[in-house]
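Z., the sequence and structure:
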Amino acid sequence: MLDIRELSVKQGSFTLSADLSFKFGDRIAIVGPSGGGKSTLLLTIAGFLELSSGSIWFNSKRIDGTAPVHMPCSMLFQDNNLFPHLNVVENVGLGIKPSLRLNPSERELVFSALKKMDLENKALSKISELSGGQISRVALARSLLRKKPVLILDEPFEALGPAQRLEMINYVAEFLKGYNSILLMVTHNPLDAKKIANKIVFIQEGVVSDPKDTKAFFKEPDLEIKKYLGKNYY
């Protein structure tokens, strides 16, 4: 279980407030207007932002204040956070071992991930030689291979075209079938949420709603959610 208890994060005049609980197997889409606090929530859960008050618990152990490297989370940032001096294989391999001293089975895992991401022919390329969509796929592969119990994706498919976007959503969904993990994914695309999430959290102006069943979210949206979605999505 991941429990976010009476959380408050203050950044200047902006305050994010949340009280949430997620269980293993949850696939959560986090949606809402820009600037509402979606990325702030993810960064706080992953340990990159300090809480003003409240607490975060994982499996009955309090984890807020823990260094990000020791958190039970793997986070894919909006800017992908790849290392330009390393090639594609090395960047993805970091998801398994920071030392990059991979044994044959671990190298096989890396190349299998690259194959699924259609990046086999870019294995030795530097990050500067890749397109925006290819960079997104490298970062996603690395995040998935970390196999942390909480996978956090902050708008992971924004640089991808519609067909590739759908492929990546399907790949993430298929990958997660084998793991009793929690997915927290920020997206501005309602179709992404419908495809991968069993629950949706709506955030607006720092106020975080309780998770709602995906079908109910789109079938019975309240006024603020209707304004956000537009008529094509409910």
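The two ends are 31 Å apart (CA to CA). The mean pLDDT is 89.

Let me know what you think.
H.
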